[in-house]
C-alpha cells in the first residue's frame, strides 16, 4: 500500500514538472519569434559566423588604414570632436575617425594639430587599442592611443 502511494506521488510530481517545463518553453518561444525559426545550435553557428565576419572586417579596416598611411597621407586640417572620440579632417579629403581617446590626448591633439601641421605617419595595433603616430612639419613626433581607428572618404 505504501509503495503504491509513493509511486503515485512520484508520478504526479514528474508529470507536473514536465508540464511546467513544456509551458515555460512554449512561453519563451512565444515571446521570441527567432526562437521559433532557429534552434539553439543554429544560434551558435550564426554567432560564430558573425564573430568571424567582424574579425575579418576589423582586419580589412586595419589594412586599409595602414596602406593609406604608407602612401602620402594629407596633413590635419581640422579636429572635430564627438562624444565617443574625434575625427581628423585631412588635406587630401579623407577623414580619420578615432574612438576611445583620453581627454588628455584629445586636448593635446587640438593644441598641436594646426600649429605643427601634423601628418598621420603610422598605426600600430596593440591588444585592444591602436597607437597612431603623427609627425609635424618640423619633424617632432606625437603619439596618441585610441580604441578604434577608421578611414572614411
**Whole-number mean pLDDT:** 82
Helix content: 40-55%
Number of DSSP helices? 4
The largest pleated sheet is described as: 4 strands, antiparallel
Strand content: 25-35%
Number of strands: 7
- Rg of Cα set: 28 Å
Q: Which structural class fits the helix and strand makeup? A: alpha+beta
Q: State the separation between the terminal residues, measured CA to CA.
A: 84 Å
Uncertain regions spanning at least 5 consecutive residues = none
Overall shape? rod-shaped
Strand order of the largest sheet: 1-2-3-7
**SSE run:** HHHEEEHEEEE
Describe this structure in words.
With 153 residues, the protein is α+β, with helices and mostly antiparallel strands. The chain has 4 helices and 7 strands, in the order αααβββαββββ. The strands form 2 sheets. The chain has a 4-stranded antiparallel β-sheet. Strands 4-5-6 form a 3-stranded antiparallel β-sheet. Strand 1 (76-82) and strand 2 form a beta hairpin. The chain starts with a helix and ends with a strand. The mean pLDDT is 82.
Describe the SSE topology.
Layout (H helix, E strand, L loop, with lengths): L1 H30 L1 H5 L2 H31 L5 E7 L2 E6 L4 E5 L3 H11 L5 E7 L4 E6 L5 E6 L1 E5 L1
Antiparallel strand pairs: 1-2, 2-3, 3-7, 4-5, 5-6
Amino acid at each position: 500500500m505504501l509503495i503504491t502511494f509513493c509511486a503515485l506521488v512520484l508520478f504526479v510530481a514528474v508529470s507536473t514538472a514536465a508540464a511546467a517545463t513544456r509551458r515555460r518553453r512554449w512561453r519563451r518561444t512565444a515571446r521570441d519569434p527567432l526562437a521559433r525559426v532557429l534552434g539553439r545550435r543554429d544560434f551558435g553557428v550564426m554567432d560564430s559566423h558573425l564573430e568571424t565576419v567582424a574579425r575579418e572586417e576589423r582586419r580589412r579596416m586595419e589594412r586599409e588604414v595602414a596602406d593609406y598611411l604608407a602612401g602620402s597621407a594629407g596633413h590635419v586640417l581640422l579636429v572635430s570632436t564627438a562624444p565617443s572620440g574625434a575625427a581628423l579632417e585631412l588635406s587630401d579629403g579623407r577623414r580619420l575617425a578615432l574612438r576611445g581617446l583620453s581627454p588628455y590626448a584629445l586636448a593635446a591633439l587640438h593644441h598641436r594639430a594646426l600649429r605643427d601641421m601634423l601628418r598621420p605617419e603610422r598605426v600600430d595595433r596593440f591588444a585592444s587599442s591602436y597607437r597612431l603616430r603623427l609627425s609635424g612639419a618640423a619633424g617632432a613626433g606625437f603619439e596618441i592611443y585610441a580604441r578604434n581607428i577608421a578611414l572614411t572618404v
